[in-house]
Write a structure and sequence with these properties.
The longest helix is centred in the middle third of the chain and has 15 residues, at 141-155. Helix 6 (205-212) packs parallel to helix 9 (244-257) and helix 10 (276-288) runs parallel beside helix 11. Helix content is 33%, strand content 16%. The model is unreliable at 1-6, 101-106 and 349-354 (pLDDT under 50). With 354 residues, it is of the alpha/beta class. Strand 11, helix 11 and strand 12 form a beta-alpha-beta unit. The chain folds into two domains: 12-61, DNA polymerase, domain 1 (Orthogonal Bundle); 68-351, Aldolase class I (TIM Barrel), CATH 3.20.20. A ten-stranded mixed sheet has the order 1-2-3-4-7-8-9-10-11-12, covered by helices on one side. A two-stranded antiparallel ribbon has the order 5-6. The protein binds S-adenosyl-L-homocysteine and iron/sulfur cluster (SF4). Iron/sulfur cluster binds at residues 121, 123-125, 128, 130-131, 168-169, 202, 223, 343.
Length: 354
């Protein structure tokens, strides 16, 4: 099929095309989707209602499981981080976060999975562990979706909330992201409600506009971290390409197409972006697009100089926002202790450990 990386899971239409190429009747598509997404088959061999010849032809070209679990950090009732190996021996991480009321107003039965979209990241934000080693490659749609299937198998829990806040910039991997969104939200797929899916981006303006055109009512989070160009450029090189004003124009377009409030992610870094004046500018910005703000005290990353402000300063920052009528949460970080907080995902590749 010429695929550079195995594509074990396909969208409904890709599968239909493939089966036609193989001269198969179209109802095989529904059978295969059922095996993959509902019965969670681990091998083509299990698909007992398919002709054996078709099974072995597909098995050769499309290994069903592209990810191998190699390590779990964390325990039963806390955040768990799974280290997963890709077919080309690289590693990614996926983080399962138990109920976290501070995050997007979740109820206590929620299980949120924080998935990776790339190996590494090309955007080089100065505070972020994922970008430290640069960009390696995009994940395929199958590799994105497999993180969910595997996390459910490993934990025995149903993932009912999904955030694209692991390693990578999802909007820089747009085609695979949108195929993965189809697999995740469709009735024939994992059937997770689009409203429970959040795509987080550092602010790629053209792709935000493209994402706004997708039919699914997904949520959008923007890694803002600076309310004005001067502050933002200090820590996010992407701002040179897409300055704050342009970004907010794109967010207004998003608002015209989608119903749900945008979330502005804002890491509080001492001496960089956490002053009351900066809070004031952020409040105006947030109000202009009716966004809510998620404040995240900075998580220490080994090798980076930044530190989080003290609790008092964080609370004062939040107060400026709430006084201006902006809904703001000060995020209760989970997983900090195992380096699994989103944005702390980085692999010590040479050891294959976390
Ligand atoms: N590339 C996308 C999605 C992955 S980053 C994006 O940037 O939005 C997921 C989130 O973790 C982002 O909001 C990111 O800014 C944040 N983050 C990165 N490093 C962090 C750190 N050291 N402490 C807290 N949050 C961090
Ligand atoms: Fe990449 Fe997002 Fe980290 Fe920036 S914050 S380096 S865009 S993963």
């Amino acid at each position: 099929m010429g695929a550079r990386f195995p594509r074990p899971m396909l969208t409904q239409s890709q599968l239909a095309e493939l089966l036609e190429e193989q001269g198969q009747p179209s109802y095989r598509g529904a059978q295969i989707l059922d095996w993959i997404y509902k019965k969670r088959a681990r091998s083509w061999e299990e698909m007992s209602n398919l002709p054996p010849a078709l099974r072995s032809a597909l098995a050769e070209q499309y290994p069903l499981r592209p990810l191998t679990h190699t390590l779990t950090k964390g325990s039963e009732d806390t955040t768990r981080k799974f280290l997963l190996q890709l077919p080309d021996q690289r590693y990614i991480e996926t983080v399962l976060i138990p109920a976290s009321p501070a995050l997007y107003g979740e109820k206590s039965d929620r299980h949120t999975l924080c998935v990776s979209s790339q190996v590494g990241c090309a955007y080089g934000c100065k505070f972020c562990a994922s970008g430290l080693d640069g960009f390696t490659r995009n994940l395929t749609a199958a590799e994105i979706v497999s993180q969910i299937i595997l996390a459910e198998e490993l934990s025995g829990e149903k993932v009912n909330n999904l955030v694209f806040m692991g390693m990578g910039e999802p909007l820089a991997n747009f085609t695979n992201l949108s195929n993965a969104l189809q697999m995740v939200t469709s009735d024939w797929g994992l059937k997770i409600g689009a409203r429970r899916i959040t795509v987080s981006t550092s602010g790629l303006v053209p792709q935000i506009k493209k994402l706004a055109e997708l039919p699914q009512q997904i949520r959008l989070a923007i890694s803002l971290h600076g309310p004005d160009d001067v502050t933002r450029e200090k820590i996010m090189p992407v701002n040179k390409k897409y300055p704050v004003a342009e970004l907010f124009d794109a967010l207004r377009i998003w608002n015209s197409k989608k119903n749900q409030k945008i979330t502005l992610e804002y890491i509080l870094i001492d001496g960089i972006n956490a002053s009351p004046e900066q809070a004031g500018i952020l409040a105006k910005r947030a109000r202009s697009i009716r966004a809510k703000v998620n404040l995240i005290p900075y998580n220490t990353v080994e090798g980076l100089p930044w530190v989080r402000p003290n609790d008092e300063d964080c609370l004062r920052f939040k107060k400026v926002l709430t006084n201006a009528g902006v809904s703001a949460t000060l995020r209760l970080e989970k997983g900090h202790d195992i380096n699994a907080a989103c944005g702390q995902l980085r692999l010590k590749k040479e050891q294959g450990t976390l």
